[in-house]
């Protein structure tokens, strides 16, 4: 469930890029969940044509996924196939992370790949021919083979992937999976049923074997012949209409071109690794950060395939070989590597026959989340509240008021006042326990309910991010006339106003980037 300010932030991002109508459709889907076309028209009160155009834009920009289901009708009538639309909240929020994604591509693959990547960010989905046509318009990228090579490098790095099926059909659950025999091991494992949205995404996603595969026929033939001529890029409207069609084959029977998009999952994974390494460097040591970086590099492919919170097991020799390749790792020996692994929470095997290690990234992320919330408590409520909250976070259980007061060395009267304040603001959970005896006593027990608190913290972060975006827009609108002036006319008072705007914008955008790091820590990692 998306929080209140998460919905508002997503709607604002869509409004800034694609207009108010698209924002209204997006907000409707976020607030009400998966809907049919008729329901969207009714709830938004937009015309059918406007809603269809908005859905075309949002699908092409990877913010909405369509899927079909079988709807039961009256007895004796044939089942009806209905198309439904679900909003992709994560992809929508990723729009404010495009600069981070571009920096990763630029640092790893260079400016040639960055040009192709930028086009995919801008247009959402493109075929290889459209990518080539777009790059042929720039004088620096007139070589078709160079463009293909750059695109191939993006695929190999998993920065780009095939687009999902435009409108997959979801069979009724009983038809999808045959009933398992009673008493089998798989039948004993109780799994939570998947939501219809989860099933739609799984069905739409291309198989892993072809997800990053560029077919041979896309590398030759029509593209090469067209490459020597001048081409105009297809308009966005034409591409949206092409992508919105749910037919796999055109009316002539010719197979449609494969469409490609940015693989956000890979960038989130890399940013997750970067955040974990940085946290370990600061909280433990530089050497522990180097060892963690080496393990994550070695287990990259298995983590992508298995999608687990724990890295695959790696031998000590493989870890050491990777460590000495890192900056600052050349001077480390096996004993230092083992000491760093202990810092990272690994157990040293008693026998050296099979000395392998794996890292629990989930534990590192939880520690970072705890510290982030503790820092918020410190700024809002003071040092004594910070000590109390930190104690409850680390204990992970209900504690009585006197116990908290004695452990944190805070007066009981002040302790009770702080606990009530934190409870009232939603940071703590309280339970009252009555004890019967010669004298009836009432005890107050306190704990941190992370599940509900993390949701609250995330909503506050979405609120803060929205406010920063609005402030940036406000500052630019206030000085719109200054931004439109040529540089040579910015003198005197105009120059001061321009410098002030530039300084304010840098501060606000820097704050937004730092806030987004914390936001990803709680939502994406």
TrEMBL record:
It comes from the Eukaryota. PANTHER family: DNA-DIRECTED RNA POLYMERASE III SUBUNIT RPC3 (PTHR12949:SF0), RNA POLYMERASE III DNA DIRECTED -RELATED (PTHR12949). One of its GO terms (molecular function) is single-stranded DNA binding. DNA-dependent RNA polymerase catalyzes the transcription of DNA into RNA using the four ribonucleoside triphosphates as substrates. Specific core component of RNA polymerase III which synthesizes small RNAs, such as 5S rRNA and tRNAs. Transmembrane segments: none annotated. Residues 373-434 form the DNA-directed RNA polymerase III subunit RPC3 winged-helix domain. InterPro entries: POLR3C_WHD, RNA_pol_III_RPC82-rel_HTH, RNA_pol_III_Rpc82_C, RPC3, WH-like_DNA-bd_sf, WH_DNA-bd_sf. This is DNA-directed RNA polymerase III subunit RPC3. It comes from Forsythia ovata. GO terms for cellular component: RNA polymerase III complex. It is found in: Nucleus. Residues 169-188 are annotated as: Disordered. Residues 149-334 form the RNA polymerase III Rpc82 C -terminal domain. Belongs to the eukaryotic RPC3/POLR3C RNA polymerase subunit family. Belongs to the RNA polymerase beta chain family. The keyword Transcription applies. Pfam families: HTH_9, RNA_pol_Rpc82, WHD_POLR3C. Gene3D superfamilies: Winged helix-like DNA-binding domain superfamily/Winged helix DNA-binding domain. Residues 9-67 form the RNA polymerase III subunit RPC82-related helix-turn-helix domain. Component of the RNA polymerase III (Pol III) complex consisting of 17 subunits. Keywords: DNA-directed RNA polymerase, Nucleus, Transcription.
């Amino acid at each position: 469930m998306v929080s209140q300010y998460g919905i508002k932030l997503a709607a604002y991002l869509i409004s800034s890029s694609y207009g108010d109508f698209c924002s209204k459709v997006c907000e409707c889907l976020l607030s009400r969940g998966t809907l049919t076309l008729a329901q969207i028209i009714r709830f938004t009160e937009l015309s059918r044509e406007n809603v269809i155009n908005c859905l075309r834009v949002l699908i092409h920009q990877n913010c909405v996924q369509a899927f079909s289901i079988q709807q039961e009708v009256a007895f004796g009538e044939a089942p009806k196939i209905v198309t439904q639309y679900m909003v992709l909240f994560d992809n929508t929020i990723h729009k404010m992370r495009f600069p981070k994604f571009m920096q990763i591509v630029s640092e790893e693959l260079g400016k040639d790949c960055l040009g192709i990547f930028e086009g995919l960010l801008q247009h959402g989905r493109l075929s290889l021919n459209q990518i080539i046509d777009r790059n042929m318009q720039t004088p620096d990228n007139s070589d078709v083979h160079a463009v293909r090579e750059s695109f191939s490098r993006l695929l190999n790095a998993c920065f780009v992937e095939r687009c999902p099926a435009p409108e997959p059909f979801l069979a009724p659950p009983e038809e999808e999976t045959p009933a398992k025999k009673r008493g089998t091991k798989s039948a004993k494992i109780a799994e939570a049923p998947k939501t219809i949205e989860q099933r739609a995404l799984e069905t739409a996603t291309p198989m892993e074997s072809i997800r990053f595969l560029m077919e041979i026929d896309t590398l030759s033939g029509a593209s090469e012949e067209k490459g020597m001529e001048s081409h105009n890029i297809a308009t966005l409207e034409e591409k949206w209409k092409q992508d919105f069609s749910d037919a796999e084959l055109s009316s002539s029977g010719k197979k449609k071109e494969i469409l490609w998009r940015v693989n956000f999952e890979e960038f989130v994974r890399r940013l997750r690794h970067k955040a974990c390494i940085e946290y370990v460097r600061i909280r433990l040591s530089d050497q522990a950060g180097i060892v963690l970086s080496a393990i994550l590099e070695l287990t990259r492919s298995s983590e992508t395939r298995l999608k687990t919170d724990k890295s695959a097991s790696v031998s000590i020799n493989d870890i050491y070989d990777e460590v000495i390749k890192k900056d600052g790792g050349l001077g480390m020996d096996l004993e230092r590597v083992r000491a760093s692994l202990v810092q990272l929470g690994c157990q040293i095997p008693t026998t050296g026959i099979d000395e392998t290690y794996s890292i629990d990234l989930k534990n590192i992320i939880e520690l970072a989340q705890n510290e982030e919330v503790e820092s918020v408590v410190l700024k809002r409520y003071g040092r004594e509240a910070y000590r109390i909250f930190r104690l409850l976070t680390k204990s992970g259980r209900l504690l009585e008021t006197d116990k908290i007061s004695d452990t944190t060395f805070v007066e009981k009267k002040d302790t009770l006042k702080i606990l009530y304040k934190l409870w009232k603001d939603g940071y703590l959970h309280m339970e009252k326990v009555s004890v019967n005896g010669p004298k009836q006593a009432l005890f107050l027990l306190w704990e941190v309910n992370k599940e509900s608190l993390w949701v609250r913290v995330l909503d506050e972060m979405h609120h803060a991010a929205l406010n920063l975006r609005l402030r940036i827009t406000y500052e630019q609108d206030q000085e719109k006339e200054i931004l439109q002036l040529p540089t040579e006319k910015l003198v005197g008072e105009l120059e001061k106003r321009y410098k002030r705007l530039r300084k304010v914008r840098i501060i606000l955008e820097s704050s937004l980037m730092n806030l987004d790091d914390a936001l990803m820590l709680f939502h994406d990692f």
